Amino acid sequence: MSTLTNKQIILGITGGIAAYKSAELARLLIDKGATVHVVMTTAAQEFITPLTMQALTGNPVHTTLLDPQAEAGMGHIQLARWADLILIAPASANFIARMTQGKGDDLLTTVCLASNAPVAIAPAMNQNMWQDAHTQRNLESLRADGKIIMGPADGPQACGDVGPGRMLEAAQIAQLAAEQFEKKGLSGKHVVINAGPTREAIDPVRYISNYSSGKMGYSLAEAAVEAGAKVTLISGPVNLAAPERVELISVISAEEMYQQSVKLAPNSDVFIASAAVADYRPVKVEPQKIKKQADVLQIQLTPNKDIVAAVAALDSKPFTVGFAAETQNLEDYAKKKLTQKKLDLIVANDVSKEDIGFNSDDNEVTLFWPSGQRSLDKASKRQLARQIIEFISQQLETTD
Ligand code: PMT
After folding, report:
1. Rounded CA separation 18/93 (Å)
2. CA–CA separation, 124 and 28 (whole Å)
3. pLDDT confidence band for 293 (50 / 70 / 90)
4. Which atom of ligand 1 is nearest the CA belonging to 195?
C-alpha cells in the first residue's frame, strides 16, 4: 500500500459542493502519514468551515493573502516552500481558469505560483461546465505545464445532472497522491536525448540530410518522462511537437548537435544518441546559390565529429546509449560500434526495411551491451521506447 509518511501536503479547497469530501480527504492523507496544511478560497468557506479543517489537521487554516498575522506565522512563501505536494480538491472551473492564466490574486493561486512542488488538481463541477471548451482548453494547458489532473468521475451530480465532473472519492484522491511519491525507474535522473536528422549546408538553399523523422527519439523522450526523468531533447529539424515536460533544444547541423550534446552530457545520468547525424558535411559552404553550369558537380565532404563517441569519452561520462542503423550485417556492425565508440548499450535497427526504421511508426530492434543482447519484437516506436527506457533503468540500478 502506498504511504505518505513524512510528506508535507498543502490541501487547497475551492468553492464547490464537493468541498464536504475534503474533510474526509484530509483525514485519509493524515492516516497515510502526511502533515497537512489547508488553504481555503473565500468561496470554499461558504461550503465548509475553516474550523472543521483546523480540527481535522491540527494546523491553522490559511485563508487570506494579505493578513499580517498569518504572514507573521507561516507566510505564503514559506507555505509554498514547505509543500512536497499541493493538492487542490475540489478544484472549481473558476479556479482552474484562474490558475491557467497564472493569476496570483488570492492565497491559493499565489502559493501555487510560488512553489516548486508538484501541483495536483481534482476537478469538481457541473457536467456542462466540465465539457465547456474553455474548461477543456484550460485543462490541456495545465497538463502541458506538468500539473497532475485527478479525475473527474462520471455519474449523478449534486445539481441533478448526470455526467462527467464529479470529484473523485476521497480515498481515490489520497491513493493517487501517495502514488506521486512512488519511486519510478528514472526519478531524480537527467536524461539527454538527441533525435532527428541533421542538415549540412551546401549553399544558402541546399543541404545534405537523411530520412529521419525524429519519431524514435521523441518516443524515447516521452517514455523517459513517464519513467520520472528530467529530459532534455536535442532535436534536428523535424515536424513533431515536443512531448510534454521535455526541454527541447532545436539544432540544424551536426556541429550544433555536437556542441549542445557535449555541453549537456557531463551533467546528465543517461545520454541517448538516437539522431541520424550526417557523417559528412561539405568542406565549403558556398555563400551564394550554386549555378547550374557543369555536367558534373563535385562537392568535397569532410567528416563530422562523432557525437556519441565524444560523450562516451568524457571523464564524467553518463550511461551512454547509441543506435546502429544498418542495412546489412546488423549484429556484426552494431557490436563493432558498441566497442569502438565505448558505449554502454547500442540499439540496432535494420533500416533497409520500409515498415520499420526511418520515418515509420514502428520499429524492431536488438539491444547489445558488453555482456549480452536482447531482441525486442516489432512494435510501435512508443512501445519500444518504453521497453528501452525500462531496460536502461534496470541497467542503472545494477551500476548505481
Ligand atoms: O527518426 P526516425 O524516423 O524515427 O528513425 C529512427 C532512426 C532509424 C533514425 C533511429 O532508430 C536510428 O537508428 N538512429 C541512429 C542513426 C544513425 O546515425 O546510426 P549510425 O549507425 O550511422 O550511427 C551510430 C551511432 O553513432 C548513432 O547513435 C548515431 O547517433 C551516432 N553518431 C553518428 C555519427 C556522428 N557524427 N555522431 C554520432 O553520434
Report:
1. 13
2. 19
3. confident
4. 1
Residues in the chain: 400
Residue 246 and residue 304 in contact, taking contact as beta carbons nearer than 8 Å: no
159 is catalytic: yes
- What distance in angstroms lies between residue 105's CA and the mean position of ligand 1's atoms? 49
The DSSP string of 301-312 is: EEEPP-HHHHHH
- The pLDDT of residue 2 is 63
User: Would 8-178 and 190-399 be classified into the same CATH topology?
Assistant: yes
Q: How far is CA 278 from CA 194, 196, 275, 359, 370, in A?
A: 13, 11, 9, 16, 26
Report domain extents, the chain.
Answer: 8-178, 190-399
Pocket lining: 21 vs ligand 1, CB cutoff 6 Å: no
Instruction: Report H helices in 180-322.
Output: 215-226, 254-264, 307-312
Ligand 1 pocket check for 324: Cβ under 6 Å: yes
Q: What is the dihedral of CA 257, 260, 263, 266, to 10 degrees?
A: -70
Query: Active site residue: 51, 55, 159, 205, which one?
Result: 159
Res 1: pLDDT: 52
d(CA 239, CA 308): 24
Please state, in angstroms and rounded to a whole number, the distance separating the CA atoms of residues 217 and 258: 16
**Which residues contact residue 22 at a Cβ distance below 8 angstroms, ignoring those fewer than 6 apart?**
11, 13, 38, 48, 53, 89, 90, 170
Task: Report which residue type is found at 231.
Answer: V
* Superfamily name and number for 190-399: CoaB-like (3.40.50.10300)
Grade residue 113 by pLDDT with cuts at 50, 70 and 90.
Answer: very high
8-178, what's its fold? Rossmann fold (3.40.50)
Q: Phi-psi region for residue 385, left (φ > 0), alpha (ψ -120 to 50) or beta?
A: alpha
Compute the distance from residue 155 Cα to the ligand 1 centre, in Å. Answer: 50
Q: 197-242 pLDDT, tens per residue? A: 999 999 999 999 999 999 999 999 999 988 889 999 999 999 999 9
Place of cell 485527478: 150
